[in-house]
Amino acid sequence: MGLITSAETERSTVGPAFCGAVFASLAVMVHEVYTVFLGHCVTSDPFTHVLLEMAVFGSGGALSFAAVAHVRRRFRRTSSAQVVAKALR
Question: pTM for the whole thing?
Answer without folding.
Answer: 0.70
